[in-house]
Design brief:
single chain; mainly alpha; 11 helices; 67% helix; 0% strand; globular
């Protein structure tokens, strides 16, 4: 899953949200430099990723893309699934997506000194381009993929990923709708509630 899903699955816990955001940017022993409540978010992120990677429905989505995107198939599916979460947000939360995104950005700004260098670097771009809200829109998604394609070490083909999403849109959407409730139930079993409010 990508940024939006990880933040959504952190519920209302600001340190859990912070840890979940920075998890991929924290390597090895660096994790020991954070408070336990942030470490919980880093661990949650990794558990979500492991569950997602091993889920048979996600495997179906990735298989449709594997030949073209190879190692990047999982990254592309993560973005597709964030798109469906954003596009169908009202089915998952009573709290408006725009307000939720603002809350996430504010939380990250409030804890700026705790963010790893890479997170501090990307945060202004994330806020200026309102990434969490923009995933809902396929034109914005196309721009995200273009940026990702430019940053990959090898040719990834991700600049074409929205075309492939649109070509099999209903199949990917159906797979997301099958998978995401399973992921929510898994996270709930870990003791995290997905209720979102303005507090």
């Amino acid at each position: 899953m990508n940024f939006l899903a990880h933040q959504y699955l952190s519920g209302n816990d600001k340190h859990l949200m912070l840890g979940n955001f920075i998890a991929d940017m924290v390597k090895g022993k660096q994790i020991n430099g954070f408070p336990d409540s942030v470490i919980d978010g880093i661990v949650l992120h990794r558990k979500i990723d492991a569950y997602t990677d091993s889920h048979p429905v996600v495997t179906l989505s990735k298989a449709r893309l594997r030949r073209k995107y190879r190692l990047y198939a999982g990254v592309v599916v993560d973005m597709y699934y964030d798109h469906f979460l954003a596009a169908d947000w009202v089915n998952y939360s009573d709290y408006p997506l725009k307000a939720f995104a603002s809350r996430v950005y504010q939380n990250l700004k409030d804890h700026h000194e705790m963010l790893p260098e890479r997170a501090q670097y990307i945060l202004p771009y994330m806020i200026d381009n309102n990434w969490l809200l923009s995933y809902a829109d396929t034109e914005s998604l196309h721009r995200h993929f273009g940026g990702m394609a430019r940053r990959t070490q090898f040719a990834s083909g991700m600049e074409d990923a929205v075309d492939d999403l649109l070509a099999s849109y209903q199949s990917f959407r159906k797979e997301f709708k099958l998978f995401f409730p399973d992921l929510m139930a898994y996270v709930e079993k870990l003791g995290v509630s997905h209720a979102h409010h303005g507090a």
